[in-house]
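During the reporting period the student researcher (J.K.) took over the structure-prediction task from the postdoctoral fellow and processed the backlog of single-chain submissions. One of the processed entries is reproduced below for the supervisory committee.
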Amino acid sequence: MDDLRNLFLEALQQETNYLQKELPHHLYAIINGYLQGGGKRLRPCLLLMCAQAAGGDVEKALPAALAVEEFHTWTLIHDDVIDHDDFRRGNPTGHILGCRLGKEAWKLSDNVAADYGVSAAILAGDSLQARATEKLFELKDFQPQTIMSLISNMTGLLTQDLLAGEQLDVEMSHMSWNDVTEDTVMTMINGKTGALLKYCAEAGAALGMDTPIEACPTALQLGQFARNCGIAFQLQDDILGIYGEEAKLGKPIGSDIREGKRTLLACRALAMLSETDAAKLRSILGRADITQDDITTVRNLMNGKPLESVQNDAESYVQTALSCLEMALPASPCRDALHDFAMKMTKRVM
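J.K. obtained the following structure tokens:
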């Protein structure tokens, strides 16, 4: 995976050079802050791994890998606006950087600069969404039907599923905890996280076999592999949001608690705790003025059976993913690499 990641990063540098020339400075600065902000590049690497596993030329698939990274990035920029997050991976989020740029350029007041930052972040995200689709038209040496399949699935089902998941996440933030069900949380996770990883695997395999996604059983099976990996990834991410280390997580520990984020772990804890402890947990979740003692209290309340049950669920999704992988591909080093990818979904350190 490291070789593919390095190949992708070389292509990403060329892409950011292009964006710097084509976009207004503030939009480029916001976008570049995300694209160069680190991360494991799981999504583009997954696409390239699946292309390679299906017998394809990974260099020819690079425009699609760039497309999914840009598609993912615009969702992050907009998500940070929606969630009012100030930092991502230790760096200012798009609207915060936009606010600072507005102040530096025109000495804007705090309120006007904040409004400008939000506007700039929205436009930066929109620019990347458009560029992601444009990158797919740069694919060469593939049948037109294959390329059009990737484009239609990205602009159609993927976008619809992802936005539906995001909207559900926003709606849940306003719901009473009594109205938030585990099924609703899992539907949201499938849309916000599972759908894009599913597309990455499908697109990679379709390019590897030069066949439209919908006509490629290998692509569809790998899509299910990746979807289950994505759900496991999100469950682990929500655990890390409570129990992780701030330096490794890239955001303040406790932000999910302050937000009152609707997670499977929170739902499971509220269902398993006594009425007294559940009331105590609800009194802390979503409160802006939480203390370190409150964070410790939440950790203690969620520990034990609630935490173990969600960890078991994450492991179960990984095992389902591995079953899909074995059906999709014969034994090979490429399949082994995808197996390792799946295992890492629940093995990220706290």
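The committee noted the following: DSSP finds 16 helices and two strands in the chain.
J.K. will present the remaining backlog at the next meeting.
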